[in-house]
Specification:
about 150 residues; alpha+beta; Alpha-Beta Plaits; four-stranded antiparallel β-sheet; two-stranded antiparallel ribbon; 4 helices; about 25% strand
């Protein structure tokens, strides 16, 4: 248990050092009907696919320099009633918060797995550390490294 707490503290310190200014929560669907009419249920692979889809679709529109901005994806409630993603990110400097939120929401809605519910808020230095802890409340494994970049 102490090892997990130590790892969690290391994650908090590492993430706290990043320039993050947007906190997004995207609710996921627990199942979808695919193009063949089959039901596909949400699993870890599909959670990562949804997050990677959003990451790639949003950031590919940006300059090479801006594509390196932090984008950290955390999964919460993976196999419960309301699975969702928390995303800590840094908006490009040429975006207003409103424009970033609108564009991010539009891109996220194109993923089959993302429900219409989304909450996108600015992060202040006063709330940043609390949000990082919140994203890690299910432990360090909540951070989806394969869908994140920083």
């Amino acid at each position: 248990m102490k090892q997990t707490n130590l790892l969690e503290k290391e994650y908090i310190e590492m993430i706290d050092g990043l320039n993050l200014d947007v906190f997004s929560t995207l609710t996921l669907k627990t199942a979808i009907i695919d193009d063949s009419g089959s039901i596909r249920y949400l699993d870890d692979e599909n959670i990562c696919k949804a997050a990677t889809f959003i990451n790639e679709r949003f950031y590919r529109k940006l300059s090479k320099e801006e594509r390196g901005l932090p984008f950290l994806v955390f999964a919460e409630g993976r196999f419960q009633k309301r699975p969702h993603l928390h995303i800590l990110s840094s908006k490009p400097s040429h975006y207003s918060f409103f424009d970033y939120a609108r564009e991010f929401y539009q891109v996220s809605r194109k993923s089959y797995w993302v429900n219409k519910e989304a909450d996108i808020k600015p992060i202040s230095e006063n709330t940043k550390r609390r949000l990082i802890r919140y994203c890690l409340k299910e432990g360090p494994d909540a951070l989806l490294m394969e869908a994140s970049h920083f």
